[in-house]
Amino acid sequence: MNEKFEEFRKISGIVYPPFSLDFFERHFFNYIQKYPELLERYIPVFWTEINNMSYDINKLQTILDSLPQDGRRYFTIVQHADGIHNKLQNTDVFFLGGKGDIPLALIYDNPRIFNHYASNEKTIFCSFVGANTHPCRVQMCNVLQGKPGVVLSIEGWTNKIPAHKQTEFLEFTSRSKFTLAPRGYGRTSFRLYEAFKLKSVPVYVYDDLLLPYTDIIDWNKLAVLVHVSQIPNLYSILSSISDSQYDAMLKYYEDNARLFTYDGMSDYIVKRLLN
User: Residue 25 in 3-state DSSP?
Assistant: First the structure.
């Protein structure tokens, strides 16, 4: 199976978010090699990478259509927000923040960066540094503008974020008690998980709820979940959270932190497939 799809595991060279050291699809490809019993079910395409460059979609479809339909159920992994453009048969799609069947955490890993900033003192009540990729982000910023302890920086989207904006994000987020993590182009964002790594409680503003691991964790113990209809009350919602509730959220994350690593997420996928 690996050889059949080899030409569809090209590397685009695009690194997004800028702090990411590796993308999950490649990490999982290497991880799954130690489970030979699953390799014949795995479609090893780097969907996110090929979506970032031109590829022969028809040739790939021909290969996908040639897969044996002998009762086995296939699976694959995709991170790209647009999901998979090819047609898949009898396949479970594990997805990070985009489209598919089984949601995963939209994470990346960079321990050096996160560890450097995570110990910063919390001097900001809540913050948002990001792009105006969805109307709810603009509405959120309009509602919170000028509120005590709120830091906001919203601009147009680009996949080439200048160094000073990267530093600004890390500084503000790591110094924030709450990190505003509204949905963007996709139904969720990396920011939801970056907040955890920087020891800040994320505030997930959503219109169509998309959260992983709902079978094993309670997200109400982990983050502040706010529907877009609640944006006018967002500041009062955050202000009503006690210090003990806040500390309990941070503790609950620490108890489940492995799930928000590449290896932990890979373990989760394998357990689901084997069970």
Answer: helix
CB distance 91 to 113 below 8 Å: no
Is residue 204 packed enough to be buried (19+ CB in 10 Å), middle (13-18) or exposed (0-12)?
buried
**Tens of pLDDT along the chain (275 residues)?**
789 999 999 999 888 888 888 899 999 999 999 999 999 999 999 999 999 999 999 999 999 999 999 999 999 999 998 999 999 999 999 999 889 999 999 999 888 999 999 999 999 999 999 999 999 999 999 999 999 999 999 887 666 677 778 889 999 999 999 999 999 988 999 999 999 999 999 999 999 999 999 999 999 999 999 999 999 999 999 999 999 999 999 999 999 999 999 999 999 999 999 98
Cross-strand pairs, 128: 152
Going by C-alpha positions, the residue among 153, 178, 179 that lies closest to residue 166 is 153
Spatial contact of 210 and 187, defined as CB atoms under 8 Å apart: yes
- Tell me the C-alpha distance between 19 and 10, whole Å: 21
Q: How far apart are CA 264 and CA 136, in angstroms?
A: 31
**CA atoms within 13 A of residue 156's CA, in its CB half-sphere:** 1
| Residue 8: DSSP 8-state | G
CA 256, 262, 266: angle at the middle one, nearest 5?
90
Phi and psi torsions of 122, nearest 5°: -85, 100
Asked if the peptide bond before residue 68 counts as cis, ω within 30 degrees of 0, the response is: no
Q: Which amino acid is at 122?
A: K
Strands 124-131 and 102-103: unpaired
